[in-house]
Automatic annotation (TrEMBL):
KW Repressor (keyword) present: no
Recorded name of the encoding gene: trxA
Family: Belongs to the thioredoxin family.
InterPro entries: Thioredoxin, Thioredoxin-like_sf, Thioredoxin_CS, Thioredoxin_domain
Span of domain Thioredoxin: 1-105
One Pfam family this sequence matches: Thioredoxin
Top-level lineage group: Bacteria
Species: Nocardioides cremeus
Keyword Acetylation applies: no
CDD domains, sorted: TRX_family
Alphabetical list of PANTHER family matching this protein: GEO12009P1, THIOREDOXIN 2
Source taxonomy: Bacteria, Bacillati, Actinomycetota, Actinomycetes, Propionibacteriales
Protein's recorded name: Thioredoxin
């Protein structure tokens, strides 16, 4: 599957509806972003069960701000609507493969319990 462009109009839908969504925040002027792009595209073609999206931080400034993006490229991974990974910097292919496998291997029942525990005030 090729990488899809994510915008304010479709971002939330993909987060909610896609089992696994990887998101690459980038900009045209960013050298490391351009270096990471072929690696990300190759991973998208090798992992057709995952949705790979990209967000142009120049065109989608509000979305980048809402996501708290402070440096690019930044890679985020959502699984079943939950943010499970976020890291700035261009990853080499083996590291990207490790992230993908780790996201696949997550016990989502355990992740939901952890999220619920963080959201529930103690007392």
């Amino acid at each position: 599957m090729a990488t899809i462009e994510l915008t304010e109009a479709n971002f939330e839908t993909h987060v909610k509806e896609d089992d696994i969504l990887l998101v690459d925040f980038w900009a045209d002027w960013c050298g490391p972003c351009k270096q990471f792009a072929p690696t990300y595209e190759a991973a998208s073609e090798a992992n057709s069960d995952i949705t790979f999206g990209s967000i142009d931080t120049e065109a989608q400034q509000q979305l980048a701000a809402a996501a708290g993006i402070q440096s690019i490229p930044t890679l985020m991974a959502f699984r079943e609507g939950i943010l499970v990974f976020a890291q700035p910097g261009a990853l080499p292919a083996p590291a990207l493969d490790q992230v993908i496998q780790a996201v696949r291997d997550l016990d989502m029942d355990e992740v939901r319990k952890q999220v619920e525990a963080q959201e529930t005030p103690e007392g």
